[in-house]
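Example record used in the benchmark description.
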Amino acid sequence: MKKAVVLLALLALVGCDEDDVKDILKGQTKVFAVSGVQVEGSTTGLPDGYYELSELNADTKALLPNDFPDGIKADLTNAGITVHAESCGQIVVGDEGLCFESGNKACVPDEIKKVGLDVYKIDLDDIKTAQNLDFYPTLAAELGGLFVQIDYDDVNCATLN
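Model output (structure tokens):
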């Protein structure tokens, strides 16, 4: 009975995504960081196009929210977090915008139309450490009300450009 209650709680936590449930049962979860952005109509004079975060200058980066999830894999490994798998994802920013915190905080500016993601599978025990290293937990409910649940599309990393 206890296992059934735990399984139901996990399903409520992660939704109905079968891969997420399998990861949770193995004690793993995914976190992501923004790797790049598609810019259109920038107020800073930046030409339209897709930019890796490392390509943006300080003035352009200043437009991004303070709590933007922009960690890199080395941050995880330097903190002793094992990365079990890597993949990429993207979020197409709709008319409703994109915010990484509840209460419309840490929102991307209107000129960002797509967000590229580096996605890492880590041990569930390391989720709070990863969050402190500027990674966004795909299991936002695990960390309480600060985060919003964000869905992203899995994509081939080569398509992010």
